[in-house]
Each structure stands twice: as structure tokens, then as C-alpha cells.
Structure prediction request, 404 residues.
Amino acid sequence: MKYGIITAQKSVEETLQLDTRKARLQIDLTRDPEHLQIINVKATAIVARLATWPAPAEEVLFTMKHNLGYTPKVLVYFFIPSVQAYAVGTYFYQYGTADDIFTYSVTDTSFSIIHRLTDYFGFFDVTSTANTLGDIRVKFLIFSNPVGAVTNDATDT
Amino acid sequence: MANGITVSQEGIDVRQALDSQKVLDSRWRYFEIAFEVDMSLPPSIVYSSGKSIDVFTHGLGFLPAFDCYDVTSGAYIGYDAGVGMASDTDKIYLMIESITNRSNHKILLRIYNVPITEEYEAPIRQTFLSKKSAPNGIGIKINDGSGEFDSSDIRKYPLTTSAKALAIQKTGIVVASGTATITHGLGSPPLFLAAYTGPNFVGALNLGKMPFMARSTGDTVTLIPAQNTIVGPIAYIVFKDFGEIAI
Prediction:
């Protein structure tokens, strides 16, 4: 490339600040709906039924079209008022014999916030108590950079 | 500023812009991508305790922030309890897991031009919100060399005033024994990322399921466990962007 901008720290030759020959993770501020938002979500007492085991119980707390045409990389922060803490990507409300989590899912068309209850043993119905958490604040950033796959589910492995 | 360049997001006066509303300020670092590598892991990865395989040579000469998305399994590969993806100053390698066989898995590596273990702190200029940024089509964009200035795909522009770029406030290492506290002084809880590190390596950032949560005040971030106890050195990035404000 012949043209661009390079900035380096004073007296430092390393281009650790900006080099327009290199890409950056960026969030397009012109998108509608916005790709950088803070929302509030609230879980309900979903039930992982023995009759449908091992399929997890799941509810979609928020969803929106991102209109990028590919599956984007995202960064999601869950703020949990009861513990006054942020979780990145996935919040483990309960874990062990059953995982009760808040997470996200992205496809090439939409972005969603998910509440999922996974019962690992299947001896009886398991009911989530995440409804007692009240409002959970979520800040999400949808980058205009592909994650590299058709679906990006934070919790597959 | 005595010397340098500063550019704000569209629709906000550069003199009123928060630090996090700058797409360029030559006093601080950004989350720039040094390498983006789409590749496949070797066809026959056989588990052997403590063994690793080399994945990619970056040759940066420092321990970089990086992440690795496993396209085949559909989730990030992190680094925890001695397994997962890690980097030394020269290359990325995979500590082989007994649980997940990643033979032939397609991965996307993003290695950032950020020496995450280096003690670095940017100067702070403006951290109290004065105005929300509102793109108005008046600004600048630097093309990636393709010559396509009409494209609406911002991947064509490594720098554009119609997009937010993540500016870095601080990087370094904290040692956890149950918790670990980072002082940042931004005045409001910031966004952060963190990964386990060691004397000669740093683990991959797991953007899908980070092993650390954070209690945050205006001046500190305290890492706490997301699931398992956290112990040992942790490399971190504190961004200039806040958790409480969408701008």
C-alpha cells in the first residue's frame, strides 16, 4: 500500500498505536438497529423437562437483525446487579449438575441474548431460579469483522 | 496536546469527545490486528499429557493479545488449567486437550498488535460524558489500499470516523489468589479482557466464555471467578470504553 497513516509513540519505532495497513476491530456507528447498545433483560423460571432430556430449556431474551451479511465477531458484557459484577460472553448463574447461564448467539442474520438451562443428569425436572435476579444489564458490541463461521454460539465447548 | 493527531467519531467536537469517542489519538494504543489467519489444525492430533503442537509463527517478539475461534466446533478456544491455545513471543501453539479432539478443525486466529503483558498505561484526557456521538457523514476514512472509497463495508477502512475502535487504557499482569485488582483511574467501570499468563506465554482470550468476572468501581477492576477459583498471573486489557455507557 502506498498511502495511509502510521503513528508511533514518541521515541519508539514500534507501530503499536496505528498503522492503516492493518485492520482493526471496529463497530459501525451508522447501523440501524445500533451495533453498540446497552439493554436490560429479565429471565423467567424456565424448566428443563425430564421428558425432553437432554435438550436444554432455553428462552430468547433479546434478538435483532444485524444486516451485515456474515456472522460477526461480538463482545458481550453481562452486568449482574445481585453480585455487582460483569461477566464476559457468558454468565454462569448456576453450574454443576445443571448449568443455568446467560449467553449470546449470532448467525449471519441475527444477534440474540439467550437464557439456557442444561440438566446434565436427567433424573427430574429442573426449574431455573434466574427470574429472581431481576433486570440484567447487557452491553454488546457487534464488530464489522466476521467471526469465521456461520453460527457463533458462545457455549458450544 | 503538544504533538500528534487526534480524531473523534463523527458528530462530536474533538474538544468535547470522550477518550473512548476517539478513532485516533496518537497518545494511546488501539486494538489493532497484526495477523488474521484462517487455517486448519493438523489431521492427527493425539492427546499426550503436557504436549503441544505449533500452530502459527507470528514473530512479534512480545506476548500478544490474541483469540482463536474454532470454526468447526463453533466456539472460542481459551486457555485454562494448562490446556488450550497459548502464545510465546514467536508463535501460537495448542496445548493438546484430552476432552476435545481438534484434529482437522478449521480455526480463525486474530493476533493483535498489543503486548498484553507489558505494563502500559495511556494518559487520560476526558472521561466524563458530554455528548453522544451521532454519525453525520462528515469525517474521514482511510482506505485499505483497495481504492474502493464508495464501499459501505467498513472493513475497507482501517480508520473511519463512522466506526468505533477500541482504545486501550492499560495492559499488564496481576497475580490472583482468589481475586486480583487492577487500578485504572478512569472514573467509571471500563470494559476489559483478561487471560491466564505465565513467565514465557500468554493464553488466548476467550470472548465467548471468559473465566473471569469483574467487580468494577470508578478506579479499579477486581477480577473474580466466573466458575473455578482463579490463581496465578493474569494478563489484562482495560479499554477506555465504559460498561455503563453506549457511545
